[in-house]
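Many introductory courses stop at the sequence. We go one step further.
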Amino acid sequence: MILVTGGAGFIGSNFILDWIAATGEATVNLDKLTYAGNLENLVSLKDDSRHVFVRGDINDRELVGRMLAEHQPRAIIHFAAESHVDRSIHGPGEFIQTNINGTFSLLEEVRAYWQGLQGEEKAAFRFLHVSTDEVYGSLGPNDPPFTEATAYAPNSPYSASKAASDHLVRAYHHTYGLPTLTTNCSNNYGAFQFPEKLIPLILLNALTAKPLPIYGDGLNVRDWLYVGDHCAAIRAVLAGGRLGETYNIGGWNEKTNLDVVHTVCAILDELKPAADHKPYAALITYVKDRPGHDRRYAIDAHKVERELGWKPMETFETGIHKTVAWYLDNMGWVENIVSGEYQKWLATQYGKG
């Protein structure tokens, strides 16, 4: 079996569902269940013995060590992280604690576990660390996309904490020989994403006729990666990635934030027209830009395609249509997750309007 940290979050839960469907191999899921962790994401595995859930913190070294000894995983997939830039601006401490200290604690326990393995089990073991393109900083409009050789230049507490965790993983490979792999992905979207992120936020605000907040001029560019494609890429890296290497995973879909919002609005106009028949795009509202807002991210994903044969299956147009349709079909999930915590966050970030 494999051990997944942060497996009740957006990408982690999608990965577990994808992993079990694709491989049938059991997973142990360690998740702290902070605001963005949601076991409803995994309700389809409720009675499935291939999914074992443990609520806990990666900083709890005693718990992690006990889980490793009990379940003897052949690989660790490390998703657990605080991941929202705006939250890191308001409260960076939690990002340092989880993303840096937590990764260190996990690496220490995994190193001890791996060193105790023998023969083929030790040779086959892998630690795969899931990170972000934000560690590379910001690109100009005509700059080439990030490659695995791009120098790190994080610009937010979130991206700085992820950069630090990447460096720790690299160091544990080069210093101790721990068989690590690192992936740096672009912006994910898809089912089960907590509605603080752009696409679900815009979608849910539109459905309730609330303003659609866009930072600055809306022309910040991101590369958009459908979460199902990301899961497939992680499986490919785990199976065939070279030890100690980094693989950039992107969707080859550079879009401005404004383009994304207009696309979501157009799909909603088609699938669920507003009661007053006005286009949802009429709700777009520009708000003050956030501090240190990176202008452009773009991933060069040629390495993972060249070495491992992976490339995204979804275009942005097909993936975003699937995503909007999923939210419309799963409004019960949405209503359960839109909690007091979420409302408090919205008030902090965007005001009460």
